[in-house]
Structures are given as structure tokens and as C-alpha cells.
Task: inverse folding
């Protein structure tokens, strides 16, 4: 509940600042984007009670993932008095396939049987884990500060035809604790390059790194905990007004 209150306060503050600045003092943008993404899971562990009622404590389980995709929207503004400084709110979705795999687990119990993303997962007493194919979803948002370097400035493009930029900020991702939605705190960094093809239209490409240390997901009394980091390469369309 404390995390949810923090998110609400933060989003309210961002909207208040945005409304206070006003269109007359800012260059606004609305972005749509998509691209390739890789979700890596490290320090993956499981604890709780399995479907047989047995206690589970698996401190380390290796899980491989494949390349997937990401899509999202971003809205924000650049300050006219200081056109190299901007703020935005980025809302994104990442999905990565988890291939069927047999891997090794460090376990302190005589194996367990449970579910992971509605798929049956088993770990034998000697630590052999059988993980079926599934898709790993990640839905989150990030309020960010942005810095850009306007290049090729002229009367038609007063903020530059070319705009290399960087972004940074905290990030929250949604998770489940049985039937309750919770948010997990992490961070987001990005570096990109925008090309203004018309006064109100720009194309951009961006690399972004998103991370969530100690991300937890609980389903049917089993809690899965892992460090998530995501590498994405995206392209997008930006409307400026």
C-alpha cells in the first residue's frame, strides 16, 4: 500500500508540474514506439508452499529467456527557456519468450511442484528443474528527466533538426501477489537520437536499459523472486506541438 501511495503522489506531482508550465512555455511531445527487447532474470529463487502443501526454498534457479518485443507511449515536454531540458512519462510493455528448458536448481527441499505464469514447473529432489514454454510479460511506467543537444538549428527548426538525447528516472512495474496487484520499484536509462522531418513530426531511435532488483511475483502461495534487467532497441514517431 505504501508503494501505491508513492506512485500516486509522484504521478500527481508530475501532472501538476506539467499543468503549471503550460503550452506557452514548453514544446510538448507525444511518442509512439516499438522494438526488440531482452529480459534477463538473475538470482532467480522460489519460496513458499507448493500444491502438495510442502515447504519450498529454492535459492537459485537458472532461467533462460529469448528476445521478445516492447511497445509503448511517451508524453512530455521540453522547456522553452532551457530547450535542452525536458520531462516525460513513459508507459511501456515488454514481453519475452521463456523457452522450454531443463536446468539445474540449488534446492533445500525434496523438490516441488507448482505453477509459473499458469504453466506447471517441477523441481526434482536432485535439483533438476523442468520449465515449460511461456511468455514473460512486464508492464510498467517511468517518469523521466531528459537532456538533449539541439543541432542544425534554423528558423524552421528552432530546437534543431537533429537532437541526440539521454533520459533517466525511476520506474515501476506491475506484479501480482496472489490476487492483488502490486508495484515493484526499479530504474530506467536511455540514450537516443531524434530527427525532425517536419516542424511537428520527428522520428527517433533509442536504446534503453530497465532494471528491477528483487522483483517478486506470488502465485498460489509460491513467491518467485529475481533481479530483472531489460535491454531494448526501439524506433518511434514523435508528434511535437
Result:
Amino acid at each position: 500500500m505504501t508503494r501505491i501511495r508513492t506512485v500516486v503522489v509522484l504521478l500527481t506531482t508530475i501532472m501538476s508540474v506539467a499543468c503549471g508550465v503550460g503550452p506557452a512555455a514548453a514544446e510538448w511531445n507525444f511518442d509512439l514506439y516499438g522494438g526488440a527487447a531482452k529480459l534477463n532474470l538473475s538470482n532467480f529463487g522460489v519460496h513458499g508452499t507448493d500444491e502438495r502443501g510442502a515447504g519450498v526454498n529454492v535459492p537459485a534457479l537458472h532461467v533462460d529467456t529469448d528476445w521478445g518485443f516492447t511497445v509503448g507511449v511517451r508524453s512530455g515536454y521540453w522547456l522553452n527557456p532551457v530547450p535542452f531540458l525536458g520531462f516525460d512519462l513513459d508507459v511501456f510493455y515488454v514481453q519475452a519468450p521463456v523457452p522450454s528448458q531443463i536446468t539445474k536448481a540449488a534446492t533445500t527441499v525434496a523438490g516441488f511442484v507448482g505453477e509459473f505464469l499458469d504453466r506447471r514447473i517441477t523441481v526434482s529432489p536432485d535439483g533438476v528443474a523442468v520449465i515449460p514454454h511461456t511468455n514473460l510479460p512486464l508492464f510498467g511506467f517511468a517518469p523521466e528527466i531528459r537532456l538533449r543537444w539541439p543541432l542544425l538549428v534554423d528558423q524552421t527548426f528552432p530546437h534543431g533538426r537533429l537532437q541526440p538525447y539521454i533520459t533517466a528516472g525511476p520506474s515501476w512495474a506491475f506484479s501480482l501477489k496472489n490476487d492483488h496487484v502490486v508495484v515493484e520499484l526499479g530504474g530506467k536509462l536511455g540514450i537516443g537520437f531524434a530527427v525532425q522531418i517536419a516542424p511537428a513530426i520527428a522520428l527517433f531511435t533509442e536504446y534503453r536499459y530497465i532494471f528491477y532488483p528483487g522483483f517478486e511475483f506470488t502465485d498460489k502461495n509460491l513467491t518467485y523472486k529475481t533481479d530483472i534487467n531489460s535491454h531494448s532497441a526501439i524506433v518511434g514517431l514523435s508528434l511535437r506541438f
Notes: The chain has one domain: 2-43+67-94+139-240. The longest strand covers residues 26-49. Confidence is low (pLDDT under 50) at residues 17-23.
